[in-house]
Design a protein that fits this description.
- By secondary structure, the chain is mostly helical.
- It has a domain at about 10-120: Orthogonal Bundle (Arc Repressor Mutant, subunit A).
- The chain has helices at about 10-30, 35-45, 55-60, 65-75, 100-120, 125-150, and strands at about 80-85, 90-95.
- The protein has a two-stranded antiparallel sheet.
- A hairpin with a 2-residue loop joins strand 1 (about 80-85) and strand 2.
- Helix 1 (about 10-30) crosses helix 5 and helix 3 (about 55-60) crosses helix 4.
- The termini are far apart.
């Protein structure tokens, strides 16, 4: 396959890698009965169980109405539950249900297999180095940009 002019540009590579990973994840998790958006919610709740809907929407870069509908469907299916927030009567905290926990094992297998495929041919130190660099880049764009006022979010 011949390389195009954008194949070594950071933004293009990052976007294309994310696209390919989504595509592979969808193919591997097709039989689960969950959409990618639902898997993303479960993945986020797995590490931040008890988060409120607004914070979840922000973390997943979704509109509050979109996450609300998604959570409604997942709650109806018994995959997540809303519990009252002790500090705010208007808010609810989100939790994974007992029904969902066995599915998380499947999720981990799919995710780990995908990472193994993506990192194939990289040594453990190269993998760690790559992740360290990406974390630093994310920090540069999120923390410093907000702190110095370099980034202006026109969509909010």
């Amino acid at each position: 396959m011949e390389l195009g002019p954008y194949d070594r540009r950071f933004g293009f590579l990052l976007h294309d890698i994310a696209r390919l990973m989504r595509k592979r994840f969808d193919a591997r998790s097709r039989d689960s009965g969950l959409t990618r958006a639902q898997w993303q919610v479960l993945a986020m709740l797995r590490v931040q169980e008890g988060v409120n809907q607004a914070a979840l929407a922000e973390a997943l870069d979704l509109e509050p109405i979109t996450i609300g509908r998604l959570i409604d469907r997942m709650e109806e299916a018994g995959w997540v539950e809303r519990r009252p927030d002790a500090a705010d009567r208007r808010a609810h905290r989100l939790y994974i249900t007992a029904k969902t926990r066995p599915m998380m094992v499947q999720f981990e297998r799919v995710a780990n297999g995908l990472l193994d495929e993506a990192f194939s041919g990289l040594s453990p130190s190269e993998r760690e180095g790559l992740l360290d660099l990406l974390v630093r880049i994310r920090g540069n764009l999120s923390e410093r940009g907000v702190r110095t006022g370099e980034l202006v979010d026109t969509e909010s």
